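Pipeline run #58 for the internal structure catalog. This entry was flagged by the ingest filter as a single-chain record with no existing model, so it goes straight to prediction. Upstream metadata was stripped on purpose; only the residue string is passed forward. Reviewer on rotation: M.T. Logging verbosity set to normal.
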Amino acid sequence: MELVRSIENFVREEDGVTAIEYALIASLIALIAITGMGLLGNQLNLMFQHIKNQLKIS
């Protein structure tokens, strides 16, 4: 019962809500950053492959 009361108090307090909001925002930013870095990494890999292929032909 004490655990339930603690959770209820945590949800009622604005600090808890603010912490949850910040955690959601941080996770969204992290997801966007990881996705962007993955796409950038793929593009860089393709560019270096192209350069490598051009150097072999010359």
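catalog note: Residues 14-57 form the longest helix (44 residues).
catalog note: The radius of gyration is 23 Å.
status: ready for reviewer M.T.
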